[in-house]
């Protein structure tokens, strides 16, 4: 059976390191203790004024190509998952395609907020399964949310960070390895609870509808604390049932990393140890669409992901959008 296998990954983060102490000075109060005790973020990376989402993507893409020992002109498709695009239009993926000289690759962007990378991974794998023209597909998750932070809003400014990571999927004839299953869910009733509400027709019709800083990230309402763990654990169990395994058979879980408590609750619901879900928010903050592939890349770089391991990805983002997929390495 023709299937999509993860053959390489790559990653890039900006040089600028922002420690928690920066926000103590910025906000005039001690937020560092809360960050370290409740979300376990100690520092994060932010873009400089000259850095952009396309820069992050390009560097991550080149790193993945190097690790795959692949030339850019061997790529057939590039999918960029981001909700902080280079432009509203055209797509960020077109910029990346030109910069890395992937002259044979088609492109498109995908936005399901922070569930974007797993959604794009599911999409790329199914392109390979469905159409023999696609032999190598690059999937990039990127986040430059520092560009959209309200520096006076203590609820958002200290959590979010920047980075990008890329996977390369390869078409192989295999019934045992590669993409096994995927699932998408949406709870659209939460669409206006969190987001960047500028752009498109909304901004033109009523620019004061959500305040004067519509191009900045806003938490409008507080989400139920058990929402992510409940849906993540349900999606994990559904995928495991689909492929005929138990959650205990999954070797690694890569989950959205905004709040470590949500990851701990998810593992508790699955009756599993936290050692199965690598965390990177301590050093990199919350990097949205990039956090899941970044965590995978760093774990794989440490040699912890072995041949035949079952790897499950599950993410969520504003909208609310949820995505999950499982691969056998």
Q: What does the model show?
A:
With 329 residues, this protein is an alpha/beta fold. It has two domains: 2-175, Peroxisomal Thiolase, Chain A, domain 1; 179-328, Thiolase/Chalcone synthase (Peroxisomal Thiolase, Chain A, domain 1, 3-Layer(aba) Sandwich). Helix content is 31%, strand content 25%. The chain has ten helices and 13 strands. The protein has helices spanning 21-27, 32-39, 53-68, 92-99, 116-130, 200-205, 227-243, 260-269, 281-284, 291-301; strands at 2-12, 16-19, 43-46, 77-81, 106-110, 136-144, 162-173, 178-186, 194-195, 218-219, 252-255, 310-317, 321-328. The strands form four sheets. The chain has a five-stranded mixed sheet, sandwiched between helices. It has a four-stranded mixed sheet with strand order 8-13-12-11, sandwiched between helices. It has a two-stranded antiparallel sheet with strand order 2-3.
